Fold this sequence. Notes:
- One of its GO terms (molecular function) is 4 iron, 4 sulfur cluster binding.
- By secondary structure, the protein is α/β, with parallel strands linked by helices.
- The protein has a single domain (3-224), classed as TIM Barrel, CATH 3.20.20.
- The chain is 27% helix and 21% strand.
- It contains seven helices and eight strands.
- It has helices at residues 50-59, 80-89, 103-107, 127-131, 136-150, 166-178, 206-209; strands at 3-10, 19-24, 66-71, 93-98, 115-119, 153-159, 183-187, 220-224.
- An eight-stranded mixed sheet has the order 1-2-3-4-5-6-7-8.
- Helix 6 links the parallel strand 6 (153-159) and strand 7 (183-187).
- The protein is globular and about 50 Å long.
- It starts with a strand and ends with a strand.
Amino acid sequence: MRIGGFVPLTTIDYPGELAAVVFCQGCPWRCGYCHNSALIDPSAAPIIAWPEVHAFLERRRGLLDAVVFSGGEPTLQSALAAAMTEVRGLGFKVGLHTAGPAPERLARLLHLLDWVALDIKALPEDYPAITGVPRSGDAAWESLALIQASGVTLEVRTTAMPDWTARDLAALAAALAQKGVRRYAVQACDTRHALDPRLAPPRIPLAQLAAAIDPASFDRFLLRGH
């Protein structure tokens, strides 16, 4: 495990649970709005070793409920399944934050997961303009289908691009609802900490941008940020 960050306690990264978060190093995509740019380089030196994290979690049994693996992109870690297995052995729930770039890797992890937050960035055809990687949208939407078929509790998240219109976001939300997504969160884009310093601030406030979405299309619909 290459770990680029560790948060010992959070109330917001796994809904309804007290959790620790392991930030995995490395990501195959280069999204301009990325706010964790320090985690993109897979060769960066880890800041903490997995045995140290494991020892911390042993001491927190009965005090924490869950461990979330985030990133970067955690599914790229070859030791992720083993780490998740150890976490489950300690009695914790296991959560995953992923953008779904590697559906075949994700498929091998689903039996170890209790909850997933999947970042769906756009309609499949619009992904390359965001990630810089051809066919990246196909991988993300395949990952969506795999998680849904598994029955693992899922929240889909979208960061609204700064140049999007209400029609753009509504079209994406409608496509997700049609695919059967029941929990959906739309997040504001904070360009102050973006990987691409040329990225302009959003033109339209998030609430106005999301006004065209019918909340009744989802069991749970959230706006995060401003």
